[in-house]
Design brief:
This protein has 283 residues and is α/β, with parallel strands linked by helices. It has a single domain, classed as P-loop containing nucleotide triphosphate hydrolases (Rossmann fold, 3-Layer(aba) Sandwich). The protein has eight helices and eleven strands.
């Protein structure tokens, strides 16, 4: 996982402002001994920039597992707090995950356009730039950008900061567009109702069995860019079969933001989720 890939060493910024981020660092002393420094923060979201730390170039397998467990336990606690906040306000939240270039942002923009009267807010995750958040704002929807620096995924603490800054309408729809990556985001609950994995027809049909954790964690797979199928040698049946091999319960919708194919079914899924979140809140 991210213990060895350098994730977390960079500065996290939300709409350009640096935030101090909860993380676990492994430090190495001159005598070669190691220990983890934990930096817990609550959700007051009034942090200054995090101090720089030097990381060990490698850790033992046992220590790596322990650090990963610590990271995921902390993330789970933040995710539960996010989920409680969203539930209390009747907000239906989705975590959109995919490879880079799958068409997430284009699909989001089209979705917002078609939803019309439904209030939508978006949390955008990228290592750098605010280009995707700018595209979302151009639709009239509220959006906030999280730049993860070297980080390869969003986590629940980052999302908690963003939730504190967003003016979320009650009984609305929140779409979290994760960093383009089919590995680490699978392990991190953000407090969402569902993970939605987006696989485009310009990628390999075998992505689900190459990255099974992501497809196993998702409730829904959107097979995107289907308008390109006449120009590609792509086996739709095989792609869906691979997804259901790792997750027999996964729902699949074939969509195209360009042609509009499948968008009605996707919008029905969103409206049903919003209605369910609203009913739970009012119960």
């Amino acid at each position: 996982m991210c213990v060895t890939c350098g994730c977390g060493e960079g500065e996290v910024r939300i709409d350009g402002a640096a935030v101090q981020h909860d993380h676990v660092h492994e430090h190495v002393h001159a005598d070669g001994t190691r220990h983890a420094h934990e930096h817990p923060h609550d959700h007051e979201h009034t942090h200054d920039a995090a101090p720089a730390h030097s990381h060990a170039p490698g850790v033992t397998p046992t220590r790596r597992v322990q650090i990963e467990q610590d990271i995921l336990a902390k993330n789970k606690a933040y995710a539960q707090a996010n989920r409680r906040l969203l539930s209390e306000r009747g907000i239906f939240a989705l975590n959109l995950v995919s490879s880079p270039g799958s068409g997430k942002t284009t699909l989001l923009c089209k979705t917002i356009e078609l939803l019309k009267q439904q209030t939508v807010a978006v949390i955008e995750g990228d290592q750098q730039t605010s280009q995707d958040a700018d595209r979302i704002r151009a639709t009239g929807a509220q959006a906030i950008q999280i730049n993860t620096g070297k980080g390869c995924h969003l986590d629940a603490h980052m999302v908690g900061h963003a939730l504190a800054q967003l003016k979320l309408a009650e009984e609305s729809l929140l779409m979290i567009e994760n960093v383009g990556n089919l590995v680490c985001p699978a392990a991190f609950d953000l407090g969402e109702a569902h993970k939605v994995v987006i696989l485009s027809v310009t990628e390999g049909e075998d992505k689900p069995i190459k990255y099974p954790d992501m497809f196993r964690a998702a409730s829904l797979m959107l097979l995107n860019k289907t308008d390109l199928l006449p120009y590609l040698n792509y086996d739709v049946k095989a792609a869906i079969g691979y997804a259901r091999r790792v997750n027999p319960e996964i729902k699949v919708i074939q969509v195209s933001a360009t042609s509009g194919a499948g968008m009605d079914e996707w919008l029905d899924f969103l409206r049903a989720g919003v209605a369910q979140a609203r009913a739970v809140r009012r119960h």
